[in-house]
Each structure stands twice: as C-alpha cells, then as structure tokens.
Amino acid sequence: MNVTIALKAKIMSIKEIGCCGAYCKTCKPFNTGTCKGCKLGYDTGERDLSKARCKIKVCCIGRGYDSCADCSEIEICSVINEFYDKNGYKYGKYRQAIEFIRENGYEEFLKIADNWTNAYGKYK
Question: Please, which domain of life does this record's source organism belong to (predicted)?
C-alpha cells in the first residue's frame, strides 16, 4: 500500500468527533466496526435518530451540527453541561475539546487530535 494512502486512512474526519467532543478514532470498538460512534450512519439513513437514546446526539445531529461546538446556546444548555459536570476526568477533557474547537476550528483540532491515542489528549 502506498504510504500516502495509508497515512490518509489514519487521518480523522469531523464525522469521527463525538457531538460532546470525544475523539472516536482511538476507540477500539469504533475501529473494529462494533461501534459507529455517535454520528455515523444517520446521514445515510442506516440509523434512525428518533431511536437514539443520547439526548446530546439527538440535539446535535437534529440541528445539523458537526458537534456541540457549533451551538450558540452551549453555555446555557442543560443537556451538555450536565454531561460535562459528571464525575470523571474524561468529561472535562471532552468539554476542553469543544472549547478548543470553538476557539480554533475543526481543522486545528484534527491536527492535534490525530496524534492522540485516547478519546482525549493534550493540546500544544
């Protein structure tokens, strides 16, 4: 396989950023096909948004956003903020990802996140 093609296959797309800010590309179930992340399949009709249980996903995808970073109401949104306020390190990191995207854009986030090995990582 051509090295350029192999490298391109590893590069993440916006569709692989969870609505909440999680980085799905590093998740083993996502990479083995046992999980579609929170967004894949809704644009093709393979999955039905009305059957989704995640309120964050329903709101985000239903409004046509790539993630909650696109929402002008994020500061007052009880759904996403209750999620971020849960106990656990990862929730704060997901909030940090959304804040980074809001300030710097998806392209800059993807450049950094593509080097992560977990659903979150460090920012330069």
Answer: Archaea
Gap between the Cα atoms of 16 and 8, Å rounded: 14
121 in any annotated domain? no
Residue 40 and residue 51: Cα distance in Å, rounded? Answer: 14
Q: What is the pTM assigned to this prediction? A: 0.84
Output Rg (C-alpha) for the chain, integer angstroms. 14
Residue pLDDT, tens place only, 9-32: 445 688 889 999 998 888 888 888
Instruction: Count structural domains, the chain.
Output: 1
